[in-house]
Design goal:
- This protein is an alpha+beta fold.
- It is 35% helix and 32% strand.
- The chain contains seven helices and eight strands.
- Strands 2, 3, 4, 5, 6 and 7 form a six-stranded mixed beta sheet that branches. Strands 1-8 form a two-stranded antiparallel sheet.
- The termini are far apart.
- It binds zinc ion (ZN).
- Zinc ion is lined by residues 81, 83-84, 86, 149-150, 155-157.
Length: 180
């Protein structure tokens, strides 16, 4: 019995899951750290897999009765400058509220968005077994710049010379990963 408990605790540490609605309604909170190396989709766009992000997820219910998760992530990651393809330190500072909705609610929301109205907060599907790290990864991905670039002056690319290099950047990324 005791053994089983320890195993469970370890599992929870590695990949936290929450019953999102229950978590929100009871105002629960979890926080922890995750290595960038554990976030495969994020890793795809990073110049370097090293680094750790700290996160907090706080559940709650707003005045309108909507269950939500307040998600905070802080840390540093290394993106790839789209001009010179070198590393670019990028501070991750995520602080966002996600409303929890069932599928019907999400579908209704699609209609609203299609009608051109903007929602104040993003919504995600309420899930009894929400993978917290997957959710964080998604939110971080959405928050990152699509084409990160060094400030003018800090960039090593000479103007106009990099068009060809940019084209083969995915392979350059792979080659670099393999040689490390
Ligand atoms: Zn650059």
């Amino acid at each position: 019995m005791k053994r089983r408990k320890i195993y469970h605790a370890r599992l929870m540490y590695a990949r936290p899951f929450i019953d999102s609605l229950d978590f929100a309604r009871n105002g629960r909170k979890i926080s922890g750290e995750v290595r960038l190396a554990e976030l495969p989709r994020l890793l795809d766009i990073l110049e370097n897999p090293q680094g750790i992000l700290s996160y907090t997820v706080q559940g709650g219910v707003d005045k309108q009765g909507n269950s939500f998760l307040d998600v905070g992530v802080v840390g540093l990651c290394r993106l790839r400058c789209q001009r010179c393809l070198n590393g670019l330190d990028y501070p991750v500072r995520l602080d966002t509220r996600l409303l929890l909705r069932d599928q019907t609610g999400l579908d209704a929301l699609d209609d609203i968005v299609a009608g051109g109205e903007e929602e104040e907060f993003d919504s995600i599907l309420a899930d009894t077994h929400l993978n917290v790290l997957d959710m964080l990864e998604e939110e971080i991905l959405l928050s990152l710049p699509i084409a990160p670039k060094h400030e003018a002056g800090a960039c090593q690319a000479a103007d106009g010379k990099n068009a060809q290099r940019e084209e083969k950047s995915p392979f350059a990324v792979l080659a670099k990963l393999k040689s490390n």
